[in-house]
Amino acid sequence: MATKPRSPLPPKLATTPPKRKAERIQLKAERIQLKAERIQLALKSLPGWGTPPPRQQIERSFCVLSEYRLVRFIKFVLQTAAEEEVDFALHVGPQRLDVSLGGPGGVTQEHLAVADAINRSPWVRFTSPPAA
To answer: What is the pLDDT along the chain (132 residues), one digit of tens a residue?
Structure first.
């Protein structure tokens, strides 16, 4: 009598398919774009951030006088945005960093969380408002 080979996993785990990349992408796509009123309300607690036209993103400029601190601040922003898996853009100039969060899908709660994390970071104390 032939026996069926046993799975090394418990029966429930053996039949549960692993999460696929497509499923993770779908979960990411389910993020909800916030309405303009909600974004404006949130920006009141995020000093320095604004919504440039066409209102699909939020942005802030930082003036960093030390090249070393600028590089460290850029690394922090990249890591923070990557952890939340949000759309972002960085524009780097001499002693200046412009951070844009959002994109064609608009601004989500995750974008606001990244902006808050950037504002609370210790690197912000080494920045000043950019010259007009």
So the answer is: 556 555 444 454 444 455 555 555 545 556 788 998 999 999 999 999 999 888 889 999 999 888 889 999 999 999 999 999 999 999 999 889 999 999 888 999 999 999 999 999 988 877 776 665
Cβ partners under 8 Å of residue 115, min gap 6: 46, 49, 58, 60, 101
The answer to whether the beta carbons of residues 96 and 63 sit under 8 Å apart is yes
Helices and strands (H, E) in the chain, number of each type: 5, 4
Q: How far apart (Å, rounded) are the C-alpha atoms in residues 95 and 63?
A: 6
- Measured at the CA of 64, the angle between CA 115 and CA 132, to 5 degrees, comes to 85
Distances in whole angstroms, Cα of residue 37 to Cα of each of 27, 40, 43: 25, 5, 10
Whole-Å CA distances, 23 to 16, 28, 66, 83? 14, 9, 42, 18
Query: Where is 88: in which H helix or E strand?
Result: strand 88-93
Q: Which of 48, 50, 68 is nearest to 128 (CA)?
A: 48
Residue 49 one-letter amino acid: W
